[in-house]
Amino acid sequence: MVQVTVSERAGPGLPRVPALAVLSHHLVGYRRTWRAGVFSSFLLPVLTVLGFGVGVGAYVDQGVGGVTYLDWLVPGLIASTAFQVAVAESTWPVLSNFRWIRTYHAQVAAPLRTGDILGGHLAFVLFRVLTSTAAFLLVTALFGALRSPWALTVLPVSVLLGLAVAAPVFAFAAAVPGDSYLALLFRFAVIPMTLFAGVFFPVSSLPDGLRQFAYATPLWHGVDLCRAATLGVAPEWSVTGHLLYLAVWAGAGWWLALRVFHRQLVV
């Protein structure tokens, strides 16, 4: 299949930013399913806060780091939500667009470049991350678990974390031949990251090997930034260091995903 650039075939109705056309495509599809997504976006944080923050927190008498377990747990859950949504929206949807419904192949036949296709779909994933974390933030605010007005900065941090996770997962999902590899991704990467990245207990309590693994994951950096924001304290690492680390993951993931998309879609 020969790729045609926007400058060669752009019509009068094409947006100035072609990736917006791809984003619009995904938003039109989401318009039919958003009600179920909104319900789960509010139900999940309520059940999680009640189960872990209130239920388990009742047995943590001393709290963690001088605050109640609920207040300490909430930012980790918000970052974990951004992480989980980014992975979920970047695995089977991407694979299906290549292998099953082949939407990407139809899009590349239009006046769209691979970068437009990738950018538009990633923008939709970040939209899902932002709305999910905003719902979680609202629910936890109603529980009184936010101790600082800096908690609002959790939203851009969650978007950056979502991009740092989604971009490399896009590359992985585009390269694998079947969905069994996605199950392996969840089993050997997503679940360990969720358990050991400081969401439910301090990373400092882990053995040295697992502690270094936690520090290497993008999720821990998102958790530390979110926890500092909601508690109004300084993070364990510098804010600049966290942001740069997540930006490196996002940039490297974008480069890998763009290469894989180009190899799959352009002959």
Distinct helical segment count: 12
The low-pLDDT segments are 1-14
- The helix-and-strand class reads mainly alpha
Q: What amount of the residues lies in strands? A: under 5%
Q: Describe the largest sheet.
A: none
Structure write-up:
By secondary structure, the chain is an all-alpha fold. The protein contains twelve helices and no strands. Helices cover 72% and strands 0% of the residues. α4 runs parallel beside α8. The longest helix is centred in the middle third of the chain and has 29 residues. It is globular. It starts with 5 loop residues before the first helix and ends with a helix. The N terminus is likely disordered.
SSE blueprint:
Blueprint: H1 6-9, H2 19-30, H3 34-55, H4 69-90, H5 92-99, H6 103-109, H7 114-142, H8 154-175, H9 180-196, H10 208-216, H11 218-231, H12 239-265
Concise overview:
With 267 residues, this protein is mainly α. It has helices spanning 6-9, 19-30, 34-55, 69-90, 92-99, 103-109, 114-142, 154-175, 180-196, 208-216, 218-231, 239-265.
Short key terms for the protein model shown above:
mainly alpha, disordered N terminus, 267 residues
